[in-house]
Automatic annotation (TrEMBL):
Keywords: Hydrolase, Metal-binding, Metalloprotease, Protease, Zinc. Belongs to the peptidase M42 family. This is M20/M25/M40 family metallo-hydrolase. The keyword Metal-binding applies. InterPro entries: ArgE/DapE_CS (IPR001261), Bact_exopeptidase_dim_dom (IPR036264), PepT-like (IPR010162), Peptidase_M20 (IPR002933), Peptidase_M20_dimer (IPR011650), Peptidase_M42 (IPR008007). Pfam families: M20_dimer, Peptidase_M20. The keyword Hydrolase applies. The lineage of its organism: Bacteria, Pseudomonadati, Pseudomonadota, Gammaproteobacteria, Oceanospirillales. It comes from Endozoicomonas gorgoniicola.
Length: 368
């Protein structure tokens, strides 16, 4: 059984979640991790990103190994909001926040697991694969850091992302592509009490469209959602303008294209019916990825889980992650669970046993 220092793992995780790093504000944690990785013997590169993405930088690190093969390991450094001034609480083997913020297990549990596995391996003088790290900024809300990650540094052909929930042993091999749809509806203002018939209410147009639109769960591979609606000035003004931000996801590119076309045509038909103007911008956020269950990387991961005493199980997910981007960039990629639970909420938590479990897997995988 792989030996790790569980107390050090937990302490490092706690220290990391106390560093404020909401998306776009990762400079502090990136500097801390760069220093820690250098102390561990990694060659560290601070990879720049645009100012719109982060005040920090992506991190690439390389630790040459004695065993055959190399692997790119990845987690993201940012958190969702509310993620500032996190107070982690440890009770009965569970780490959670004090309740007024998220915890940040998404994704600092992944960073802590990777670094403790490497620390333990080095302490024990064990031979290991060549280890490459990609710690990214601004993953939440668009996978922006990984999109700008300079892949010229990366030698590995395989990648393991630690950024999923579920039982330890969960291997995400299928994830959807996502299309963003931004809609601006322009009606015509009028006094709502004196001459409402002279106006064109942008909300009426939107309501007509949405009532005729297939949304939520479309099928087992496809979903769609209206996430943001903004408009209106006052109750006595017929609403002249409305902005809608929507999305569609599918693991099937043809189904995704069909759903997006359906949503756009439904918006356009409603605008024409009511005499409103409409502007729609449809952009691909990221592409789907899919790995076969018998892919050599998947089989290698399953074998390492088995050696660590865990049953590995492949599963699909409805969420995107940096795994989508690294896969698109030509690296065979899987995404593994760290045991994080209720992420993106103030009820987020992680079990210490699960953190130890994924760390032991990582220790085993790197030394096989």
């Amino acid at each position: 059984m792989s030996k790790i220092n569980q107390d050090r793992l937990v302490q490092h995780f706690v220290d990391l979640v106390k560093i404020n790093s909401e998306s776009g504000n990762e400079k502090a944690i990136a500097e801390v991790l760069a220093e820690q990785l250098a102390e561990m013997g990694f060659r560290v590169e601070k990879l720049p990103v645009t100012a719109e993405v982060s005040n920090g930088f992506n991190l690439y690190a390389n630790l040459p190994g004695d065993l055959e093969g190399s692997i790119l390991l990845s987690s993201h450094m940012d958190t969702v909001t509310p993620g500032n001034d996190i107070e982690p609480v440890i009770e009965n083997g569970i780490i959670r926040s004090a309740g007024n913020t998220i915890l940040g297990g998404d994704d600092k549990s992944g960073i802590a697991a990777i670094m403790e596995a490497v620390r333990s391996i080095k302490e024990q003088g064990l031979k290991h694969k060549t280890i490459e790290l990609a710690f990214t900024v601004h993953e939440e809300g668009g996978l922006h850091g990984s999109k700008q990650f300079d892949m010229s540094h990366v030698e590995s052909k395989n990648c393991i992302v630690l950024d999923s929930g579920g039982p330890i042993g969960t291997i995400i091999t299928v994830a959807p592509g996502q299309q963003n749809i931004k809609v601006n509806i322009t009606g015509r203002p009028a006094h709502a009490g004196l001459a409402p018939e002279e106006g064109i209410n942008a909300l009426t147009v939107a309501a007509d469209a949405i009532s005729n639109m297939k949304l939520s769960r479309i099928d087992e591979e496809t979903t769609a959602n209206i996430g943001v609606v903004k408009g209106g000035q006052a109750t006595n003004i017929v609403m002249p303008d409305l902005f809608i931000n929507a999305e569609a996801r599918s693991t099937n590119d043809d189904k995704l294209a069909a759903q997006v076309e359906h949503m756009i045509k439904t918006f356009e038909a409603a605008a024409e019916k009511h005499g409103a103007k409409i502007e729609i911008i449809s952009t691909r956020a990221y592409n789907a990825f899919q790995m076969d269950d018998n892919d050599p990387l998947v089989e290698e991961v399953k074998a390492a889980f088995a050696e660590a005493g865990v049953a590995g199980k492949t599963m699909p997910t409805g969420g995107g992650s940096d795994a989508n981007i690294f896969s698109e960039k030509g690296i065979r990629t899987v995404n593994l669970s760290t045991g994080m639970a209720k992420v993106h909420t103030t009820e987020e938590y992680i079990a210490i046993d699960d953190m130890a479990g994924i760390t032991k897997f990582m220790h085993t995988y790197l030394t096989r």
